[in-house]
Amino acid sequence: MEEIQGELWTPESLKADFKKLGIKPDMTVIMHSSMKSLGGYVAGGPVAVILAIEECVGESGTLVMPTHTGDLSDPEHWRYPPVRESWWQPLRDSMPAFSADLTPCRGMGIINESFRKQNGVVRSGHPQVSFAAWGAKKESITANHSLAYSLSEHSPIARLYEEEGWVLLLGVGHNRNTSLHLAEYRAQYVGKSEMTNHAPILEEGVRKWAGFQDIDFNSDDFEQLGEAFERDTGEVRRGTVGHAAALLMPVKELVDYAVGWMERNRGHKGEHDD
After folding, report:
1. Which residue pairs from 15-22 have beta carbons closer than 8 angstroms and sit at least 24 positions apart in sequence?
2. What is the mean pLDDT of the chain?
């Protein structure tokens, strides 16, 4: 049997990389990540990544991760994969309600799924776009997450904006940057529309198939937006953690810039003018 190839990353080496990027004590950081992007061999796997960044922000800092559950939704709209129409109503009737303790993430990666189960981590109560948090401000960031307009002013993203937190993209692109959705609510642009989402929730201990309003999110231009933000503001810090490309940027400046960018670029034919 061949031995494991590549470089060895330890919690201490990852911690050094995070520090070099600019992660400091007292920071409030939302991290979007890809474990695979680190390359090599990580001693301790996702646990090592989590502990390394938690040690960097310290007990006075706060670490946040998205723990979304897009599968708790109307099966009529499922596309990856779709399900037969005869299943739609049985799924609506039987799908278990969201439980912050029990419901796993979907498509968030092993780091996020491990993080949400860590002792001391709390999770917001939204059935589709919850967030988990650890540290000094975990309660205030995850509290009172509204069902309708799920990433707007009554969401953990808005609390991160108020706290002047930071976005860390670890091995992923701007298209994974959930904070940009806050700008979608605040910006006024042609073609902005609303939709009704559905999910199973618990209401006074009783399971309910609930409908709630939201905007129709569009992340198709997030990569262009992120590149323009970096170019125009110089606010993005670049580095590597393991072999993963890492980008660190301030939430407030990012969202404020994104509002203006969307108002200039969305709803027009042709290429984005950046």
Report:
1. 15/52, 15/53, 15/55, 15/56, 17/239, 17/240, 17/241, 17/242, 17/246, 18/52, 18/53, 18/56, 18/241, 19/56, 20/239, 21/168, 21/237, 21/239, 21/241, 21/246, 21/248, 22/237, 22/239, 22/248
2. 95
Strands 166-170 and 28-33: parallel
- Residue 40: CB atoms within 10 Å: 15
d(CA 147, CA 125): 8
* Structure tokens belonging to residue 67: 């723990």
Q: Where are the beta strands (DSSP E) in 110-243?
A: 122-123, 131-135, 166-170, 194-203, 206-215, 237-241
Return the DSSP state at 220.
T
Contact status, residue 18 vs residue 49, Cβ threshold 8 Å: no
Cα gap 211→205, rounded to integer Å: 17
Asked if residue 39 lies in contact with residue 255, where contact means CB atoms within 8 angstroms, the answer is: no
pTM of the model as a whole:
0.94
| Cβ-proximal residues to 51 (8 Å cutoff; 6+ apart), any chain | 11, 44
**32: pLDDT strictly greater than 70:** yes
